[in-house]
């Protein structure tokens, strides 16, 4: 068969490909052997082989990246060429390679050529080039969006070194989401918003995202097979904003019932989400059966082992919403339902990535600490997955190991070893503060993903631990007998602290620890499109204060102006209160001792010098003039001012308490008015930026409604 003619452009590309393959083989063969990871020798390797075999064709993935570029930077749609390559091309690992295009000097032709093992790696390579060669920045729209004004015009893009830039993944997976993010952040998203998020994921190199949308419609069909009608489920599913906790068995019915149109629309949305994720070469994680069942199951199957759980923070412990039902994993019905749920998803979606999330014991303690019983529970849970998908991998959040003291070494081992090694992957959910991999001897040999939790309950607070993020994943991967197979971001709410997520996403591609101080300097320049000396100085202060929390506390933002203490001032001891002169933390530390008779609320968290942060705010105000029109700067200015005012309000509140203690009505009245004035100031401030408004959240909920009654719901 005769070969088609090959033009000079194609010859140049083929020649470049051959050179890169040969060079990369010799340069990286030794390092890939030396830094082998558990994926290569465990049962996980089988699933990875299946993933590669079932992945979308190269043309589909390349087209997905071209679509991303058209949406992100349409003016440069012809400036880049993308090409899928095999792992062998990258020295045996997933990677991206950035080269000057062979026809770079030809007017109107592509300037940069990016190779990658999947569409995700190519997207991450595009982002890397924009960040480090064009001083660009990408974040969520609410936090300022993308700063792309610094990208040179087509035809003038910067060259990379002639040998090219090769960046390998040191570990296979980059995980994203928390089981509750779907309610804290995603509850009202339509396809337009989801498309932006999937683009963001791809640019950050995320290849293992949760995909939980629309599962209630699947559950409808599953439970119909067990003689449970749709009306029986009206009090089982929570309302749209509370589905995360309904799915986890924490509550039921609150905000419901769900209209059928919602169920159908969400299922259709999930199919779009999955298609786009697969087109990029991602591995979406689907839900599995955890044992959470409707009350109707008990009446349909009276002999089933169903436990009526206790209250979990629900309204007045009202049985209409609290105290859900859990099917014991040792009951034969558990495996039947688990199998049906997996099979129904595969039927509905046409495929699966074979990785399933299940968290039966997330804040639900087993009835006994007998290791044999716990092992039998774990084995049954996995059998429910495997009976529906022979290649199933169980992905489990490791939050239970840091949250519940029930899980001592014997119980941990029993659960972790209840399935063959390599068929479970654990998320070390809070590794930046409370790493479990250290205390559990690498999860007793079970593969795990080093995760950053960072955000609780979608609360807004400028907070982070950049030094730990820049070093923690590296230390874990290089530790003795490491079983680490990925990095992850498990925040409960998104669209906050973009600097934290910018750095954490990079750790999926970092072989060595990052110099956080230098990185922050580059971040400030990228964030605003150019270096501004005063703003660089301000960010150095923020790095050393707000983003250097080392006290190990859970940062939930309980500033008084955010969560006013539900405490009667009279419960504070009549012992003399310390004089508060800016030393707010000292005061709260004393309250945490014997002075409070009622310890029923969380106190504000302060881990830095307030005066230093106020000085950083002054630098923002003094030096922001030349970038004042940048959405990224405007967001940061509002956020930093909000942070400073919120902490100041705490001090004013304490002054009110002092006046109350001394029966000084004038003192109480004066500082109470000052506090109320701060509330008004904050409201005016936050009204300046859409990222802090309630209106878009309400409107996005209404936009998904089919009629006026649904709008109200």
From TrEMBL:
Protein name according to UniProt: Alpha-N-acetylglucosaminidase
Keyword Manganese: no
Keyword Transmembrane helix: yes
Residues covered by the Alpha-N-acetylglucosaminidase C-terminal domain: 519-710
Organism name: Ananas comosus
Alphabetical keyword list: Glycoprotein, Glycosidase, Hydrolase, Membrane, Signal, Transmembrane, Transmembrane helix
Catalytic activity reported: Hydrolysis of terminal non-reducing N-acetyl-D-glucosamine residues in N-acetyl-alpha-D-glucosaminides
Occurrences of domain Alpha-N-acetylglucosaminidase N-terminal (ranges): 63-158
A GO MF term: alpha-N-acetylglucosaminidase activity
All copies of domain Alpha-N-acetylglucosaminidase tim-barrel, residue ranges: 175-511
EC number(s) given by UniProt: 3.2.1.50
Family, as annotated: Belongs to the glycosyl hydrolase 89 family.
Biological process, per Gene Ontology: system development
EC main group: hydrolase
Transmembrane segments: 12-30
């Amino acid at each position: 068969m005769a070969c088609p003619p090959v033009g000079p452009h194609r010859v140049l590309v083929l020649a470049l490909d051959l050179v890169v393959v040969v060079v990369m083989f010799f340069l990286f063969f030794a390092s890939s052997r030396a830094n082998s990871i558990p994926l290569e020798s465990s049962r996980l390797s089988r699933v990875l082989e299946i993933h590669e075999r079932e992945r979308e064709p190269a043309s589909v993935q390349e087209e997905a990246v071209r679509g991303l570029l058209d949406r992100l930077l349409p003016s440069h749609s012809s400036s880049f060429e993308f090409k899928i390559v095999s792992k062998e091309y990258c020295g045996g690992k997933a990677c991206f390679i950035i080269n000057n295009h062979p026809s770079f000097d030809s007017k109107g032709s592509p300037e940069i050529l990016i190779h990658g093992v999947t569409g995700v790696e190519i997207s991450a390579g595009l982002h890397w080039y924009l960040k480090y060669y064009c001083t660009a920045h990408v974040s969520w729209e609410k936090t300022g969006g993308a700063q792309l004004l610094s990208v040179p015009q087509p035809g003038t893009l910067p060259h990379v070194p002639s040998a090219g830039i090769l960046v390998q993944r040191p570990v296979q997976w980059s995980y994203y989401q928390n089981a509750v993010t779907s309610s804290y952040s995603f509850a009202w998203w339509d396809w337009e918003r989801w498309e932006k998020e999937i683009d963001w994921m791809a640019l950050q190199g995320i290849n293992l995202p949760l995909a939980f949308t629309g599962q209630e419609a699947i559950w409808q069909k599953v439970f119909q097979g067990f003689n449970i009608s749709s009306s029986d489920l009206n009090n089982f599913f929570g309302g749209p904003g509370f589905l995360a906790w309904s799915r986890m068995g924490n509550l039921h019915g609150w905000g419901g019932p769900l209209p059928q149109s919602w169920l159908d629309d969400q299922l259709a949305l999930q199919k779009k989400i999955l298609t786009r994720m697969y087109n990029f070469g991602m591995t979406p994680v689907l839900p599995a059966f955890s044992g959470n069942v409707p009350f109707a199951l008990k009446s349909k199957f009276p002999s089933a082992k169903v436990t009526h759980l206790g209250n979990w923070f629900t309204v007045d412990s009202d049985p209409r919403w609290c105290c859900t039902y859990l099917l014991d994993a040792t009951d034969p019905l558990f495996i039947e339902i688990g199998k049906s749920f997996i099979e129904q998803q595969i039927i509905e979606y046409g495929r699966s990535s074979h990785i399933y999330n299940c968290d039966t014991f997330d804040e639900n303690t087993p009835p006994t600490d007998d290791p044999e019983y716990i092992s039998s529970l774990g084995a049954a849970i996995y059998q429910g997955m495997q009976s529906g998908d022979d290649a199933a991998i169980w992905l489990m959040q490791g939050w239970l190991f840091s949250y519940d003291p029930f899980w001592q070494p014997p119980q941990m081992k029993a659960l972790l070893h209840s399935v063959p090694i390599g068929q479970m992957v654990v998320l070390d959910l809070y590794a930046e503060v409370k790493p479990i991999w250290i205390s559990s001897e690498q999860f007793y040999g079970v593969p795990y993903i080093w995760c950053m939790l960072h955000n609780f309950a979608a609360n807004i607070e400028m907070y982070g631990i950049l030094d730990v993020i820049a070093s923690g994943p590296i230390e874990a991967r290089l530790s003795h007998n490491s079983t680490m197979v990925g990095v992850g971001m498990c925040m409960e709410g998104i669209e906050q602290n973009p600097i934290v997520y910018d750095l954490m996403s990079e750790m999926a591609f970092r072989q060595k620890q990052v110099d956080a101080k230098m990185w922050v300097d580059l971040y400030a320049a990228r964030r605003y499109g150019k270096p501004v000396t005063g703003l660089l100085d301000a960010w150095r202060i923020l790095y050393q204060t707000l983003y250097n929390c080392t006290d190990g506390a859970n940062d939930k933002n309980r500033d008084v102006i955010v969560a006013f203490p539900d405490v009667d001032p009279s419960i504070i001891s009549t012992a003399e209160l310390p004089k508060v002169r800016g030393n707010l933390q000292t005061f709260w530390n004393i309250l945490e001792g014997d002075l409070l008779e009622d310890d029923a609320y969380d106190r504000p968290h302060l881990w830095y010098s307030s005066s230093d942060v106020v000085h950083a705010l002054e630098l923002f105000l003094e030096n922001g003039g030349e970038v004042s029109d940048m959405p990224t700067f405007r967001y940061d200015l509002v956020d930093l001012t909000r942070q400073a005012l919120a902490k100041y309000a705490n001090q004013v509140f304490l002054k009110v308490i002092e006046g109350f203690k001394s029966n000084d009505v004038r003192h109480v009245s004066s500082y109470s008015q000052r506090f109320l004035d701060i509330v008004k100031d904050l409201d005016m401030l936050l009204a300046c930026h859409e990222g802090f408004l309630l209106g878009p959240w309400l409107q996005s909920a209404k936009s998904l409604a089919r009629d006026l009654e649904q709008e109200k719901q």
